[in-house]
Amino acid sequence: MRVIGVGDNVVDKYVYKQTMYPGGNALNFSVYAKQLGVDAAYFGVFGDDAAANHIIKTLNGLEIDLSHCRQHKGENGYAAVDLVDGDRVFIGGNDGGIQKDHPIVLTKEDIKYIKTFDIAHSSVYSDMDAELHKIKEAGVLLSYDFSNEYTDQKLKTVCNDVDISLLSCGQLTEEEVEALLKKTHSYGSTLSIGTMGSRGSMVYDGENFYNQKPYFVKPVDTLGAGDSFFTAFILHYLKGKKESDIQAELIKRSLEKGAEFAAKTCLVDGAFGHGLSY
Fold it and tell me: Is residue 278 part of a domain?
């Protein structure tokens, strides 16, 4: 299996200790897939500052393919983060930095490259919603993280191009999560996934709902928990689909794999470590 994260990258700047860690939804997907033993690539936009250089150096060290990334003069994306009892609190940022001025526009060559992967993963923070249809039309399985940045219009527009939708639903009741996942499915996503923080996660496949409680640990840092949960879930799910496993049992096992891996992520500073003082 080969996977690619397409879109956002940042450094998460932990202001209270003046340390920055590589991150971003699309980038994290690539890194977590690599940690799980899968061939992974990342395709995004970098600046040319110390933050960008640190991310590039880290990904090269992890042997993640960056061959199609863009780099421009300017400030890389960053988010300012504080920690309260091990939980992440975002306190600012630069809205993607250089990515705002140079968003990804997929060329025919880019699409040819992306077609060599089993799944591409993007996000609401990647500034490339208008390009998603090119990936979908190329026949590549596409997943997308809405985080908690979704409106009905956003879902209606994006889900038509997205096979697997991931939504942060910690602020919703279980009944509201069920209604949201049904709606997401009706707009075009085959699989809809809601993460609910300490209450776990829920999946809807168009017929049934599946729930998973989290693996409880005393967290060092919850940053990246959702991304790592999704990565482990979807990789196990796709492997099982190739082996023609029974859908219900496959989703249940995949949810367990996701919860287990997310718990391990919560024991690491930043999304996946590799901190650098700034």
Answer: no
